[in-house]
Model the fold of this input.
Amino acid sequence: MMRNIEKYRNAFINALDLEDGVVVEDLALGESPEWDSIGHMTLIAVIEDEFDVSIDSEWITEFNSYQSGMELLNRLGVDFINE
Done:
């Protein structure tokens, strides 16, 4: 079974159609051509499906980096540490 951190990382790769070798952990909204406003909504949808969560619209604006997305999912009950 895939760990949450792997599912999270894959969500970025698949939603943003990233090339091999991109350091996903360094990504931030608007700082790469793939993660634009359309990529952001695609990423939100993929993450919601993958983790069976619903991300409130006010939280969507807080989700602006790889790390902030993990923190947001943590608040929604997704555990990245004890898996």
Notes: The chain has a mean pLDDT of 93.
